[in-house]
Batch of 4 targets.
Target 1
Amino acid sequence: MEILNYDRTAVYQYAKKWAFGRNPEFYDFSKIGGDCTNFASQCIYAGAKIMNYTPTFGWFYKSANDRTPSWTGVQYLYNFLIGNEGAGPFAEEVPLNKLEVGDIVQLGRATGDFYHSPVVVGVSRGRISVAAHSYDAFNKPLSSYNYEQARGIHIVGVRKN
């Protein structure tokens, strides 16, 4: 399996273009549980350009009714990216100070329940800026969010069959 580079510039450009809007190619889940992980997946796809069409446990979006749980679910996206050994993007969990543009931060409660998946769009002198949906944001300081714990998901690369 060939390993390709993850295009972090494309992720940034996509996030900038759609942070305050909705790409009509994707359903807007804002009113039914939130659109943050859907937006994060769209951004990742902009940089990866390869989906994983494995039923249930892959990572793909064909329509609102034909997608994997990992496309829109916070924990499912984490599970896919960290565990993916097939096609598409793969990642490792890292401390926040190891994140780069195009990576994902997931915010959670002390109980270990993670509920938000902002996309990293800036890293400067230890400060992380993010883009997100549901509560639309671009270049928002991560420090302005209220959360009890955060985990960094660093996208290492993309596998192509």
Target 2
Amino acid sequence: MFAKTLQYSICFSLLICGGMYLPAQAKKPPADVVEPAPPLLDLTEDNSSQPFAYVLEGRPDPFVPFITKKASTPKLNPDEIIDEDVELTGMRQFEPGQLRLVAVLETGKKKIAMVEDVTGKGYILNEGTPIGRHGVVSKINLQQVIITETAHTRAGKELKNTIVMRLNKEGEQ
């Protein structure tokens, strides 16, 4: 019984002293000491006989693009006006709001309108002349030019807008 009590007292004293009397191989290093990690790849040996295999378990594939077509495709508005891919030349370069009606000439049954841009350069308009992105000169009167703009939406709906350019009387701005 004395031997058992001696064993218990030795174990108890070792626990209280924090293991100072344990043999060197049984002691653990302090927590702030970092042991070097084993090398991942031994470069001294010839590893060319072993083929490389990438394991995808729990990892994203690095060769798949981050942005997919589904994620990058914006939602399309069906009421949005579709612009045609047409080269804008002549009077199509000007929107009706950029021009000012300065004169209307009548020669028999034919009427001609004269307009000028903000720089003062003059242009001639006839009925049927395309103007702006979507407009066409539909009618020329003695006091005004009527332009009809026709646009199409993504849903196929046709939108019509009428613009009237009035001839200012002398002295009006």
Target 3
Amino acid sequence: MILYGSSFSPYVRKVLAFAAEKSIDIKLKPLGLGSTDPDFLAASPFRKIPAFSDGNFTLSDSSAIVTYLDATVPEPNLMPEEPRARARTVWFDEFADTILFPAVAPIFFNRVVQRILMKQDGDEGAAQAAERDALPPVLDYLEGVIPESLYLVENRLTLADIAVASVLVNLHHVGLLDEARHPRVAAFAGQMHARPSFARSIAVERRALAR
């Protein structure tokens, strides 16, 4: 199995962590959105990252990829069978992809991708606007729904935790996990990011940012 992309993408990181939790051997082929790698383009005709191949089977969406992985290797089960728990898991995956990361993305892109990785001036105004307006209500919501167990669904590890925690890595890279304002979010992130499935990617990313 091959995954195309960069672990700086929360969608790529989500798949890597999900595969690691299931002990699935998946190889990351690093590349960016502008890549013309023919294997990547065959797997992702619209150049969406991550792209994935398992032999002649290809996909190019993180949620589709983890659904395939969960069906291919059923245990440990990371997508609950009980209808309400399964629906909540799908919700948190969607929340992470389409609500949480869009609030984080302008901050991460301008302060990390542009400034640190690409050595260019980022749009600090856009980053400040997202930090001021878009991010707080999203983190306030998350603070209110994380249970005491620090697991979002069924008081155990599921895709819900992996998807949300993956985006929070990007927030951690910009230093905006505020334990004073969002203690439960910070505790949740700390618990998840300490897992080997996340720790490996985070260590690689931190080394790249320190260059």
Target 4
Amino acid sequence: MIILDNLAQFKSLYRDGRKWNRCIEAIENIDNIKDNVYHSIGDSLVYMVDNGEIKNSEQFVGNRRYFDVHYYLEGEQNIEIADKEKLTLVAPYNDDTDHEFFTGQGQIKNINKGQVIIFENHQAYRVSNSASVRKVLLKVTIEDGYFLNK
């Protein structure tokens, strides 16, 4: 997991590449979309504003084809993160959902308003404690802006 202090740091570090530019485009468009509904930009990114209380996750979730990026607009949240190889697989990878599920224990990080986190695909995460938060959820393809299977 990569934790960045703010959106300016994200823009500075991830300014090259179509998928990262689309992340910024999505974040800058959040005033124009309805909360809790996914939207897409091209074929490399889907996003939504997640608004409300987020339930604790019992299992870790991992991805293979997409990076999860979260940008916190309000509130704070504890995220538990672990390398997949240190967890126990309980539901194998599903290509339709791009999810696989694990159990085990990881390291808990507290994420606050303004921070951006990027979940790397060798790791899985779960929400271990959550208050009411408002954040942008982005799912960004690992490819360079297009799907290889299309």
